[in-house]
Amino acid sequence: MDKETLDFVASKVDAMLLAGSASAATKAAAGTWKDAVANGQDPDEATNMLMDAITVRQTTVDDVLALAKSDMGKRLFGEEDAAAMAAHELARKKAGAKWCDCAACKPCHELLAKFGREEPDVYL
Fold first, then answer.
1. At residue 31, what are phi and psi to the nearest 5 degrees?
2. What confidence tens digit (pLDDT) does each residue in 43-84 have?
3. Is residue 65 within 8 Å of 89, Cβ to Cβ?
């Protein structure tokens, strides 16, 4: 893996680790990647393992819309923020987006798209 690609992956891993919306499993996968690379493991192998882990944790635009419109979403985010979230995701869906674009999901999808594991998504 060349330095530019390694730096790209590292930036996405750092974003996953910093995201308040990241699940414990996503943070664990990102931390495992960092540890593996720091300990001299082949970055390509570590990146493939990371992508395998994050592929199973994908949240769709429809998932986010359903949460934002639900009573639970309104309790979690407040009425106003839930409505704003729903409007944002609806606009993204109309533009062709498939995946959540929260601070945790977006770097995962950018990474998967970079390595050809999925098509690039729409970000507004």
1. -65, -40
2. 999 999 999 999 988 899 999 999 999 999 999 999 999 999
3. yes
Q: Are 45 and 70 in contact (CB under 8 A)?
A: no
Are residues 12 and 73 located together in one domain of the fold? no
Amino acid, res. 25: A
Whole-prediction pTM value?
Answer: 0.88
- Please identify which residue in the block is written with the tokens 């998967």: 112
Kindly state whether residues 13 and 44 are assigned to the same domain: yes
Residue 8 lies in a domain: yes
Report whether 51 contacts 117 (CB < 8 A).
yes
Q: Which domain holds residue 74?
A: 61-94
The residue-averaged pLDDT of 108-113 equals 95
Q: How far apart are CA 31 and CA 34, in angstroms?
A: 5
